Each structure stands twice: as C-alpha cells, then as structure tokens.
Input
Amino acid sequence: MNRVEIASLIAARIARESDALSSAYAASGPIPYIVIDDLLPDDLARGIAAAFPDASGMVFKDTLRERKYISSDMDAHAPLVKEALFAFHDKSIVSAMEHITGHKPLHADPQLYAGGISSMKHECFLNPHIDNSHDKNRVLWRSLNLLYYISPGWKPDFGGHLELWPGGMRKPQTTIESRFNRLVVMATHHLSLHSVSPVRVDAARNCISNYYFSETPMHPAQRFHITAFRGRPEQKLRDLVLRGDAILRMGLRRLRKGGFFSTGHWYNKSSQP
Output
C-alpha cells in the first residue's frame, strides 16, 4: 500500500472517535495526550512490522541520556515502512490532529528532524527529558509527537513503555504501554517531561515517530530550549551530570544559534517521492 491509502485508513480510524479523543486530550493534564489502539487493520500492521529493519541497519546511540537505535534515512529501508511513516504527513491526518488538540495550523516535518524510526532492544532506555522546542531551522515550534508502536506481542512486563512525568521528577510517572498497533500523540513543550522505561527482554520494541510543528507554541510560557535530560529518581549522580550537560549545551546554543555540532538525525531530502 502507498502512503495515501494508509493515510485514508488512519483518518477513518480517527474519525470514528474524534470527539471522544478531543475530550480525552483536553482532560489528560499538564502533558496532554491521546491513545488510539488498533490504528490500522491487523494484517497491514503486521506487514509493516515484518518489513521493519533490523537494528543492525540503524544508528546506535549509547550515552548516559539514552540507549537506542534510530534512523531517519527512510530511503534505506523497506518501502512499506517509509510509506507508513509518511502517511502521517497526509493533510487528512494533520487536520484531524488540529481538531483533536485545538491547535492550528500544524505542519508535518518533511525533514524528519529527530523523527523517523527507532528500535529498542534489551537494556535500551530513554531517560526523562524534554524535546527541543523548535524544528531544524529554528523557525517553527515543536508541537506534537506521534508515536506508532509496531512490535507484535509486546507485553506489559517487557518494558520499553512511554512514561510521562506531569508532576515532575518528584511525582510518580504515568506509564503508557507500547502496545502493538497503538498510536500515542502527546503535546511537546517545556513541561512535557517524558521517558522510555528500560527494555527487559531480548526482543525489539519498534516505533515509527513523527513530529508536527506550528508557528505558535503549545504552551503560552514556552521559550526556546534544547533537548534536556534528567536522571531517573533513583539516579542521583546521573541527574547531576545530565543537568550540568543541559546547562552547558544550552549555553553553547546561545553563543551560536545553529549549535556547534549537527546531530545528523534528519531526512536529507527536499521532497519525498
């Protein structure tokens, strides 16, 4: 299937409970989010899962902040995976998210800045953090994070689940399971602290991710900031190191708008065929 056909299925699925999703988003608290299960027909979702690349063909990031495999080079992977990812760029899906969140206009990101696909295997993790506030060119505000989980049979005790920290690091987190064929959409702003729990099994938790951007921030108090990590509540020393790291990197960005180093985590194409 191509992206237009996949997008039509996603749009139809969202339309069936659009008003309920809008209410759920509004009632979900300081980090607004929604969950949509069974996003695509099961056979199509399993086909995308089967086409998902092995982690060996992706970039491995292993630091105090995170341990995961990522790729935004969608031309290097199976066409079905690429089509599934870019289906979320269809106008019908973007419009649906505008209706649900009440935030408009929203724009999908053709450069996939910090988006694309990811795989998390045994002992992979993503520490609590806020995403950076802007797009690659620091023109638009990062507004929504769309996470489509695509690992059949993923169970609650496997780990690798999304965690939201609406009360900060001193309050319990909200855990959202990385259930197969589930889409999670969350607002991103300076209070959107989130993480991924460590994977506890010898298996891969795979995800297709997209960001939407906007001319206006999702939160009225939002200001420019970089991606900033924290240690988990039990990681006192790591928390000190990561907070210092964030202060240093933010200082460097103030000296130079584009930063001194490129992450390389973006899709280097002007358009998608």
User: Anything to note?
Assistant: The mean pLDDT is 93. DSSP finds six helices and 13 strands in the chain.
